[in-house]
Amino acid sequence: MSRMITQSLLTTNGVDLKTPKIFEPPPRVTVGEPPEKITVACVWWGTAYPIKYVINLRNMVARHLTIPYEFVCISDRDDVPEGIRKIPTPVPNELCQGKDQGGNSKGWWAKVGLYKPDLFGDAKRVLY
User: Cα 23 vs. chain centroid, distance in angstroms?
Assistant: First the structure.
């Protein structure tokens, strides 16, 4: 039997601010068996972040992930650390370099490339 949670019963300046009741989520959700292996992907583009950021991320994943994994880095750089597979950015360089009309870096386009089909080969699960 589902329990209901009332979020708020406020009235302010004569305006009723009650929020609707929501159902309490189940205590546990079954997601299936853990995968045999996952791919952990990061994007390292341009010169805003030094190599230590990628190394620290790789080390944190190694310290805390308990299932087999492959660490990959989508990058335009040639100095990707040892033990990390480099994937060249799937987005054309001209889309990722410089600034847009608003003065914002266009480097974020490199991250959009994460969703290119088959970018990670036969990997079934990818953690971004």
Answer: 28
The pLDDT value recorded for residue 61 is 96
**pLDDT at site 89:** 80
Tell me what pLDDT residue 1 has: 46
Residues of the chain short of pLDDT 70, as ranges, are 1-31, 92-110
Q: Where are the domains of the chain?
A: 38-127
DSSP characters over the chain: ---EE-----EETTEE-PPPPEEPPPS-----SPPS-EEEEEEE-SSSS-HHHHHHHHHHHHHH--S-EEEEEEES-S-PPTTSEEEE-SS-HHHHSSB-TTS-BSTTHHHHGGGSTTTTTT-S-EE-
